Amino acid sequence: xxxxxxxxxxxxxxxxxxxxxxxxxxxxxxxxxxxxxxxxxxxxxxxxxxxxxxxxxxxxxxxxxxxxxxxxxxxxxxxxxxxxxxxxxxxxxxxxxxxxxxxxxxxxxxxxxxxxxxxxxxxxxxxxxxxxxxxxxxxxxxxxxxxxxxxxxxxxxxxxxxxxxxxxxxxxxxxxxxxxxxxxxxxxxxxxxxxxxxxxxxxxxxxxxxxxxxxxxxxxxxxxxxxxxxxxxxxxxxxxxxxxxxxxxxxxxxxxxxxxxxxxxxxxxxxxxxxxxxxxxxxxxxxxxxxxxxxxxxxxxxxxxxxxxxxxxxxxxxxxxxxxxxxxxxxxxxxxxxxxxxxxxxxxxxxxxxxxxxxxxxxxxxxxxxxxxxxxxxxxxxxxxxxxxxxxxxxxxxxxxxxxxxxxxxxxxxxxxxxxxxxxxxxxxxxxxxxxxxxxxxxxxxxxxxxxxxxxxxxxxxxxxxxxxxxxxxxxxxxxxxxxxxxxxxxxxxxxxxxxxxxxxxxxxxxxxxxxxxxxxxxxxxxxxxxxxxxxxxxxxxxxxxxxxxxxxxxxxxxxxxxxxxxxxxxxxxxxxxxxxxxxxxxxxxxxxxxxxxxxxxxxxxxxxxxxxxxxxxxxxxxxxxxxxxxxxxxxxxxxxxxxxxxxxxxxxxxxxxxxxxxxxxxxxxxxxxx
Length: 675
Ligand SMILES: Nc1nc2c(c(=O)[nH]1)N[C@H]1C(S)=C(S)[C@@H](COP(=O)(O)OP(=O)(O)OC[C@H]3O[C@@H](n4cnc5c(=O)[nH]c(N)nc54)[C@H](O)[C@@H]3O)O[C@H]1N2
Ligand SMILES: Nc1nc2c(c(=O)[nH]1)N[C@H]1C(S)=C(S)[C@@H](COP(=O)(O)OP(=O)(O)OC[C@H]3O[C@@H](n4cnc5c(=O)[nH]c(N)nc54)[C@H](O)[C@@H]3O)O[C@H]1N2
Ligand SMILES: [Mo]
Description:
Elements: E1 3-7, E2 16-20, E3 25-27, H1 34-37, E4 53-54, E5 57-58, H2 61-79, E6 84-88, H3 94-108, E7 113-115, H4 122-132, E8 150-154, H5 158-161, H6 163-166, E9 173-177, H7 183-190, E10 194-196, H8 203-216, H9 222-228, E11 229-230, H10 232-239, H11 244-251, H12 255-267, E12 271-275, H13 277-280, H14 285-298, E13 308-311, H15 318-321, E14 330-331, E15 335-336, H16 340-350, H17 364-370, E16 379-383, H18 387-390, H19 394-402, E17 406-411, H20 416-419, E18 423-426, E19 435-438, E20 443-447, H21 460-470, H22 480-491, H23 503-507, E21 512-513, E22 539-540, E23 559-564, H24 580-583, E24 590-593, H25 595-600, E25 608-612, E26 617-624, E27 632-636, E28 650-653, E29 660-661, E30 665-671
Parallel strand pairs: 6-7, 6-16, 8-9, 8-12, 9-10, 11-22, 12-13, 16-17, 17-18, 23-27, 24-26
Antiparallel strand pairs: 1-2, 2-3, 4-5, 4-18, 14-15, 19-20, 20-21, 23-30, 25-26, 25-30, 28-29
């Protein structure tokens, strides 16, 4: 049987896959995790959406798209263009993200577009832009990590969230910063490294303590600080007050461990500091990432081959998805929507007066919160996100969605959000379509079609193109390569410049990392070798100080709940809960609790508990974990309905990135009365 080379549907590693015409999946050039191996079960899945639904009833595409277009026209006529909102996703191909942004701004004329990357990468992106002038998750090829001697993973559970990446860290001593003893933390201990176990929400002060110890013990690279950075003096003025014992009192990490890790960081040769969502998904996530970047800069790591700072991008196209215009404040090529030159460039490519380009609009959480309220959007089109499960404070998200006049969801499967929609549009999935995805190192890769989608199903590009046509708009092709060629032009000269990347070059096997401005340019695997991307070429160190989490424990809610992932499930679980082999491993929500904490709440291992916060209640089965901090509980967010972790999370936002505080809120535990 012929097999086609493509990439896994899930995370930003975008591991190579062979997919055969019958849906058989094989690894291509390296490993796959259990989710990747079993992804073929999604092809031809019995629950697959194969016909448009209007108020739950099957209808033809003409009827569905005609209905949506009529409603959108009427709402726009009555309430103006901002009455229609668009919600995209970091799992969409570059072509889809680009066309969706253009569709919102040109066909709908709305400023109200944002996407789920706001829940994921926005704090790391904002900190990276501010420090380096560019946000590329890993500014070096991922293969560089093969040679690492020491890797600090701040809030990253790579062994479960990107298992194949662990293979690259085999020779390194690992330091894992996580309130939980995760499989990644176990590996750190086995590697001769350390597991630092802070109170959730206190990474910033831990990073200040590490910087303090590094300075006092003489590990700072003064020549690098002079030549390549500015702002160290201000940073030190704050860090000087955070000696390890004082840091220990706040975050709980022993002062001796802080000094040990600072010493390793100072003395190792090939060193990396990497952050992920554990450090970033906080109401002070940008400041926290900044503190980790300051530490890396003080040691002279960024821009030096064999060392560096990076953030581990999450979704399949989390990197490309934040570059091409589905974010409320951005235009293609990572251009800023408020920049007149950016507007002029993109306006010219789109053939519209730059004055007419709307935006910036609301960020994802604020957008969801405004739905159906006076002055807020009355309709929303969702592509590739299950917000009813994955957005913070899901109880109120359900209310906001119900308050809409029109909710349209394009999905592969009947996700919770799709089932709440007025109109459901069934779309093709990864192995049924062509496109490009940009992985966590900024490398653009081809997604290829191995089989046709089921009868009745269209691609997202066909849906967007079809809706534009219904609205009487030209310039919305459905053919992926045509869209990509337009994206190349729109990104030309921007920060993430794809102008020189073509399907032809990618199909010939070239490994192309952006920026790649011309067809003969080799791409840029390593950024910052000579200079950082600010006009003066220097990296900016920005002074940041300790900030408390938005909600602290008290007598009524004495515990800190944090949330995250397990190996076998992906995100809201819309896909993986439907794969029998994965569901068999984790079928229902659980809450990790220290045995002493469980006992105090009168709960036994395996019993159903209610996790209660000021915003709601989650039902989850108690899993006693002796290595967990007794002041902390952990909930995976992969389950829906009454088991959705986001019923309790706090929608408090970072002031800069507008990212919600998924990683800490105050809760108490109770015995479940029903389940
Ligand atoms: N299996 C699986 N893999 C995935 C995904 C998935 O859903 N499932 N999703 C993909 C996506 S989109 C993303 S964004 C990535 C996320 O990848 P990760 O960031 O690795 O995943 P999380 O589980 O969200 O968070 C990592 C760890 O942060 C810890 N943590 C909680 N609070 C804190 C804190 O205050 N400080 C620190 N230092 N750590 C804290 C949690 O205990 C958790 O173990 O994974 C990608 N890969
Ligand atoms: N409590 C808590 N909440 C979190 C997080 C956390 O750590 N804790 N993490 C946050 C993070 S980092 C992220 S990235 C978000 C992710 O959360 P979501 O945005 O909900 O992501 P998914 O669950 O991956 O939803 C993707 C949906 O798109 C569908 N889909 C798949 N492929 C396609 C396609 O090609 N086209 C279309 N139209 N649909 C497709 C899938 O079937 C699924 O229903 O969750 C956030 N929420
Ligand atoms: Mo994510």
